[in-house]
Fold:
Amino acid sequence: MAKKKGKKKSTAKKKRKILYGRIFLTLLFLGLLLYCIVMFVPKNIKTIHVKGNHFFTDQEIIEIAKLDNYPSTFTNYSYKIKKTLEDSKLITNAKVTKNWLYEVTIEVEENRPLFYNATKKKTVLSDGRTTDLTFSVPVLINYTPDKIYEKLITKMGDLDSDIIRRISEMKYNPNEVDPNRFLFTMNDENYVYLTANQLSNLNSYVTIISKFTGKKGILYLDSGEYFEVKEG
Structure:
């Protein structure tokens, strides 16, 4: 009986040695695999796609995301890039996804530049914040009282981006009837009178002005759609 027990202990020792050997070989294989990945697989982001931008170029979005040097893909996780973008006052929302490992897609919702305030020498963004950066946006050329100014920002945010690009200058121009009145100088050399409360009517500018093909003048959107043709 004693001899049989001795044989069982010997067999158990051999099994343990075999198990430890397998674990060692597995760890060695995984270590070599990790080494190959680190040493031979590219580590940097290779391609960046940008979507949803209208005012900022792809390169500007990439710079805001701090990816202009195409850094390591292993330390720039999607959530980290998203946070960097949304920490900027120029971006309202961002969605970042990685296609494969080295291709990044960025989709943004911009904090649109609305106009340049010549008095304050700042560009006003759609949430009311300002930036020293300049864009192809209308210029507010004179002082506007605070409450009317705040209303102007809110209502400008409702304008289509294409309409904003068609405006050259804005002048606060109240009269005896309405203290909210503005004069807009358009890029096509027409002028538009309207109030801050009626600013959304400017979204119909292209349709309205198309009725007067070849003519230049003043469009009174503050009192209907009356168009006064300029002489000469």
Remarks:
- The longest strand covers residues 91-99.
- The helical segments are 2-40, 58-64, 78-86, 146-156, 161-166, 205-209.
